[in-house]
Known about the structure:
The chain is of the alpha/beta class. 45% of the residues lie in helices and 18% in strands. The longest helix is centred in the middle third of the chain and has 21 residues. The N terminus is likely disordered.
Amino acid sequence: MDCQHSSNVFSSILQVDLGARSYPIHIGPGVFAQAGRLLRAVYSGRRAFVVSNPVVAFHHLATLQQGLSAAGIAVDVWQIPDGESAKNWEELYKILGWLLDARAERHTPLIALGGGVVGDLAGLAAALYQRGMPLIQAPTSLLAQVDSSVGGKTAVNHPLGKNMIGVFYQPQQVWIDTNTLSTLPSREYTSGLAEVVKYGAIRDRVFFDWLEENVQALLAREPAAVNHAIHQSCRIKATIVAADERETGERALLNLGHTFGHAIETALGYGQWLHGEAVAVGMVLAGRLSIEVCGFGQSEQQRLERLLAALKLPLACPDISLETWMTLMGRDKKVADGKMRFVLLERLGQAIVRQDIPKEALAEILTPASR
Ligand code: NAD
Ligand code: GLY
């Protein structure tokens, strides 16, 4: 993983080191205006495909199109409906039909312009179309910029579980144009901050301290603070993905709070709680469980909860029965040999995976009286 700072003080490039499948992450204001120049590093043709949704396309498609046309690249655009409920098999099939109808060739790039829903769905379509066409992730939500656009996880949801149908498929480039955040609704922005906190909590205490000191700057979306948060988040994610692309080991640490969070999203219906909101509550629960089973300090838990609350993220658990929790968490992708595995905190900046969690400890943190 490598870092270069360009002439723009807020711009940077990171590298995800995966041998022949390595790729750059371009971060900064105005990246989309450079899209054509960036794409020319991997593609010499004159056509590209863009998957987006009406909300994102309204705000940001023209800028991307202009950036591409500056290098002589024209785009065909497909829009999926807005929202998590579009991340399904039917929408995937429609994208594949559109590519076939447009006679897309397998070397032509597919650009995912949008949040994590567009990125996950278009990413899976790119992986499947003619056994794989080049994928460019152009994330526009904070959550997609710091998490879903990097690392190659693609998926659609199934009624029985979130992200259950998917493949690992790495993009060829990631374009993070931080100007796009100016149109992101506050609730979505805040949701993305939960994943930013996650990186500090699992891997980098210095970054966690920095987040505590920069809450107001982050809430005000000050460019220097936002760029630093995105850069550090992507740096940590790129390092972990490079070490464990297929999640056979340490990549599971990126799921701090997600076992609980995915259960919340599934129990309450996709789209009721935003992903980051569910992850924030999940991190609170993971912290409480960590106090019970691996010596995480009460004072560190208080710091975690204070930071999440200061960033205006929820801490309180929705009303879900213990039975429902156990059923939903039993379907988690981290389950191995029928045993649930949890990402827990030994201290801020250091996470571990544990699977020997007594049911009583889970009941203790998940039953209403203890919340
Ligand atoms: P999302 O894609 O639904 O985007 C959130 C909302 O913000 C949508 O309404 C979208 O249209 C809008 N939006 C996006 N960018 C905008 C902009 N710049 N201006 C105005 N509106 C904008 O949700 P999300 O939070 O980006 O992503 C959540 C999804 O990502 C979930 O499906 C989750 O499972 C997935 N995810 C995947 C990974 C991975 O590694 N692949 C990691 C984390 C999350
Ligand atoms: N968002 C978790 C991962 O990419 O592994």
